[in-house]
Design goal:
heterotrimer, A alpha/beta (379), B alpha+beta (150), C alpha/beta (396), A: alpha/beta, Peroxisomal Thiolase, Chain A, domain 1, nine-stranded mixed β-sheet, 9 strands, globular, C: 396 residues, alpha/beta, two-stranded antiparallel ribbon, 14 helices
Amino acid sequence: MPYKVQPGVVGTAIRPAIAGNARSLEEIIYETGQAALADAGLTIDDIDGIVVGANDQFDGRAISVMMASGPTGGVDRDILSTPSAGEHAFTMGALRVASGHYRTQLVMAWSPTEASSLSEAQRLGADPYYHRALPLDELSAHALQAGAIEAKVPGARQAALAVAAKNRAHAAIACPGSAHPAGIARWPLSAEMTSAPVSGCVALILANANFIAERGLKNTAWVRGMGWATEASFLGDRALADAPALRAAAEQAYAEAAITAPAAQFDVVEITDATPYAELLAYDALSLCAPQDWSTHLSDGSFARGGRMPVNLSGGVLANNPVFCTGLIRIAEIANQVRGKAGAHQHPDARLGLAHAGSGFAMQYQAAIVLGAEQGARA
Amino acid sequence: MELMSRQETWNITYTHALGETASYFYVQLRDNAKIFGRRCAKSGKVLVPPRAFSDETLQPTTEWVEVGPGGKIEAFTMVYEQFNNLPPPPYAFGYVLLDGADTAIGGYFKGVDLADPAKAAEKLAIGTRVMTKFAEKRTGDVLDFWFELA
Amino acid sequence: MNIISSRDRVGIIGIGQSEFRARRDDASYPDLVREAVVLAMADAKLDFDAIEGVVYSLSPDAMVGIGNAERLGVDAVGGRSKRFLRINTGGATGISSVTAAYYHIASGACDVVLTAGADKVGECGDSQTVLNKIWDPTYERQLPLGTINMLAMSAVRYMKMYGMTEEDMARVTVKNRKQAALNPRAHLRKIVSIDDVMSSRIISWPLKLLDCCPQSSGGAAMVLASEQYIHDNKLDAVWITGLATVAETYWMGDRMGADPTAEHADAHALARSFQRSYKMAGITDPAKQVHVAELYAPFSNTEYHSIDAAALCKKGESIAMMRNGEFELGGRIPVNTSGGTLCTNAIAVTAMARVAETALQVWGRAGAHQVNGAKLGIASGNGGDHQIFGTMVLEA
């Protein structure tokens, strides 16, 4: 691991589905940040810096960090914003902690549903030069990717249905009684393959090894490796049935974490299943399972609760879809697993976990984070 | 060579939840023509407009405090330029520290002759006493009130 | 915060800036980014293969008219399959992006990082309309707030507290235009007199047209590298020896009243940010140690509280010093010799240009607006409603 000082996650707060309108967005951010601090046993005075990830168009604010700086504790504090993705707030925060200049960072992402149409808000991401006139929102982009995968991999549709069934079964344990409103159909995606967007918020506390030792903090999810990368700009330039950016991100993370046999080394995995096809593609790009083996691994229970390497014990995005937060939530979920704080869906022996975060049109941004209960060997 | 261009407009409507604190403020404004602030117990400051927590202490605010209707000008400006989707000039607005408040609230200044900027600036000088005026028909919006020289 | 050891420094090895203009009808937004990137890569004498990470500098999407527009810039920065993220801290975005790039390297994760961006403010229907939307919809969106009238109100308070006059404000525009005339990359380069400024039309009292920044289009890019990489490859570089970002309260009304923590006339969080940067760089007497400053000041009056906040003098003393010419090229501490934000404001990269110009100064490469012998400079960027402040110390 190349970092000057190793970072670790010492606290989390996940609000994956916030119903009603009793709270303003700023109040939700405040409460979630405070909850993460409480989980870490820290106060805001222990926080040296903040990084937030939010989407201006979802929030209805031209600079989302502006209003958020108060509720997160940003007054008289160092705050940055990565509106590209919530998971980028994590990588940025981890880099700051790893430099040794910061003892801690509070990292947050949120995703409201106050826009009249999230689809319209997403469509604004299509360039005005060639693509704005098309109905190109994130669902359409995911559908195009799903179609490409079906065309390339025989049996992909059956495997996708199996992924959805697995995650639904996991959700029944992780968040029983949750609504999981069905999404919209967009060929080849059926309505049951996705969940309708909900409001959510997530916060993590990162600390460096010196601070953790000084304070005697227990239950750390150590960052063993991080990788993040982006695909090309135009969907048409991309081979949608593959995820080169995720391969690159995984390569970075695995090199840092000294992972040589990903399919065998992780105890538990969380994947941003924006659709079940996205989860399948991630199996391949993360070197967890090649396409020809998808169906076997799904039918023999390898990736299910109780299996060799459960994927999405949280129920994934199918369980709760607070769109912009979904990537950072996967990282928080794995942190919780490794810290022994995952509650009803806790894996019995999570020593090493992998979190995959993906966002944007057909998973344009990809990240892979390896978290472990031990610090591991320093590279 | 011919250079082309395309026009695009962004058109999204947002329904922002105001939360309990701001909702109370607006209900009091609409129904009773009163302005309320909220006190942070740790600093003792009465924050106007009210919020559920203080961004300075990060503590929840604890009690409602009625403020105004008198106050004094803390900052002002007079706008003489037309901007798209903003009101036609000239108009004056700024911030007023209402009696009983520790922070200032924004609002329009009405009833001041803005034809001569220097004279208007003297009339609106920092420290000038003002009175809050309320619209007859109020909807629960900051435009339900404005300030006039006392 | 630990003070960095001199063997672990992060340096700047390449800089690229457009010639900023009102409109660039000949180039799409990604083209403008590419333009600056090509200049920076050529300056660093590197191929794209050498870049290990990219930080994309982009403030409000609405200004460019494309949601998450950084996605469109991926190819312009050579970002496919590379580490890539975007920063937005409003007007401070450019300096926050350099800061983010710094930490990619200071963490140990990367040796060479590119940061880049562009803006086409001149193409946006109306920047003040977009900037009205930065205020919260709960209490303040209904008021006609914009960055111009927000800082007009700061001027009103600064006038009362420190005796600044409208002529003092005009003096800043005159100084910066005179300096911009020497900078081929600046947007507004026409020399103006105090009378010209005083007789320009009032936008938001006391700010007149010539007290305000233009809406500029163009791009900027920088390449940063670790000291080890610079040493191993025998590269020329200047060094970032101090940096910090501090925010103050979003609520402008909280910066008023009897005893506010952050006074709206001043730039409180900017002062706090400089304090941290100075501490990291080991600067104990900025007024004596700083040779040159590029301070983000989109309106003439704001240059004063920025100078105060940089501790180049006591609060309010900048007025008398400006009258004495101490901040001009040739003066004691030249400020904004590039013309500054007042002469060029492509919002997404304006604060990066402050870092770039300071770097060029301590590098001895600033051309006609070079400050002789400059070896230590400071840069700042402001974002949000005068709320988030990034600062940097750069040394030869």
